[in-house]
Amino acid sequence: MTYKETVEYLYTHLPMYHRIGAAAFKKDLTNTISLLKILGDPHKKFTSIHVAGTNGKGSVSNMLASVLQEAGYSTGLYTSPHLLDFRERIRLNGKMCEKEFVTAFVERIKPHIPEILPSFFEITVAMAFEYFALKEIDIAVIEVGLGGRLDSTNVITPILSVITNISYDHQTMLGNTLKEIAGEKAGIIKNDIPVVIGEFHDETFSVFLEKANSASASIFLAEDNVKVEILTEEINILELNISYLDQLIYPGLMLDLTGRYQMKNIKTVVQSIEILRNVGVEIPDEAIYEGLKRVKKNTGFAGRWQIISQHPLVICDCAHNSAGLAELFDQVKKSNFSGLHIVTGAVTDKDLEANLRQFPREAVYYFCKPDIPRGLDAGVLEQMAGSEGLVGKSFPNVKTAVRAAKQEMKDDDLLLICGSIFVVAEALEDLIS
């Protein structure tokens, strides 16, 4: 098969959560373990860092990978989902894995698929681990796909576990309370392996503390230990003073991820770096400065407060749950623009009422349906949004919605594309092609 045929095979022959939802979610790690056994257990052949959380895990993973690259390590990065190219999920020093590797891997594993019946995500995890082992990398940053305890990535024994935060998302699979969701995320905490918790929450921290204590895992709360002061805030860069345990350690640090919500994520990253240093990973200060200034360049990270153009101002952001959207619109309030135009769409299994309550009423809306089976009809979304006081029109797809918004907006307006990773992906495909 060609690369294109190979990826299409993966999409159409394997249950894929991001296309069909909960039906693709497996309730144990049996399939992943079986796949990895066939491959000779590649996950045991490299050092890793494991990152979970409701929001921010992608940002934290990319920031850590960028810093490790600058420190001179051969650095693997596994994230999900992808935006434009399947290979975004598997990177080595910021470069996507080769198309030839993807096709060869699928041909090799294909005979075992009828026997194991793996999901799309289980196959991609095995593929990533095989790639990192073959490349003999120094260290990999592994982002959890969904939850933690039953996530396919949870076969690794990392040198550090990281949990960014907990909020409501994927309740049908992870639980209906924050404590239940935290219990699933806490599943990545391993015996005697330190764990960083990004944010404190009354309902969840006790869950992490209990799990860490039972596993004899040292636990560190980034929010308590790291303080951030904004020195300069511009559209393409943030300049920060960062203190650890009340000592200024990184004065004038530049961060190229400029969403305000990154202030929480940078605390988690700095705390994680301190623990990595404690367990013997050499990371010079220079690598931290350079790595955080060049995250997008070093890792190809996209879709988070991504500025497509400045005149007019067009921004894409993958925020897709209530907590993430609240952070996003707080950033919007602090931005300079005249009129606000929002292109948005949704999938059917999200808590749409909670999400829509976060959207500003003063914006003009362009509702659309992402091109996946889970995509919510734009007319249905328009009706639901109308009940929350959000006014706009429906469009048959993302591209027509974006183009309509660009025709309506003025030079000093802001066009924000958000609400679903799939909406952002389809918009980017059109905007940057």
Describe the protein:
This protein is an alpha/beta fold. Helices cover 40% and strands 19% of the residues. The protein contains 19 helices and 17 strands. The strands form 3 sheets. Strands 4-3-2-5-1-6-7-8 form an 8-stranded mixed beta sheet, with helices on both faces. A 6-stranded mixed beta sheet has the order 12-13-17-14-15-16. A hairpin with a 2-residue loop joins strand 3 (90-92) and strand 4. The two termini are 26 Å apart. The mean pLDDT is 93.
In short:
With 433 residues, the chain is α/β, with parallel strands linked by helices.
Q: Taking strands numbered 1, 2, ... along the chain, how are they ordered across the largest sheet? A: 4-3-2-5-1-6-7-8
The rounded distance between the terminal residues' Cα atoms is 26 Å
Secondary-structure class: alpha/beta
Query: Mean pLDDT, as a whole number?
Result: 93
Q: What is the alpha-carbon Rg in Å?
A: 21 Å
Q: Give unreliable regions as ranges.
A: none
Biggest sheet, in brief? 8 strands, mixed
**Assembly type of the shown chains?**
single chain
Residue share in helix: 25-40%
Strand content: 15-25%
Offer a few descriptive terms.
six-stranded mixed β-sheet; alpha/beta; eight-stranded mixed β-sheet; 19 helices; single chain; 433 residues; globular
Topology:
Elements: H1 3-13, H2 17-20, H3 30-38, E1 47-52, H4 57-70, E2 75-78, E3 90-92, E4 95-96, H5 99-109, H6 113-116, H7 120-134, E5 139-143, E6 160-163, H8 171-174, H9 178-185, E7 195-197, H10 205-214, E8 219-221, H11 222-225, E9 226-233, E10 238-244, E11 247-255, H12 262-278, H13 285-293, H14 295-299, E12 306-310, E13 313-316, H15 322-333, E14 340-344, H16 352-356, E15 364-367, H17 378-386, E16 391-394, H18 398-408, E17 414-418, H19 421-431
Parallel strand pairs: 1-5, 1-6, 2-5, 6-7, 7-8, 13-17, 14-15, 14-17, 15-16
Antiparallel strand pairs: 2-3, 3-4, 9-10, 10-11, 12-13
Helix pairs in contact: 1-5, 3-7, 4-12, 4-13
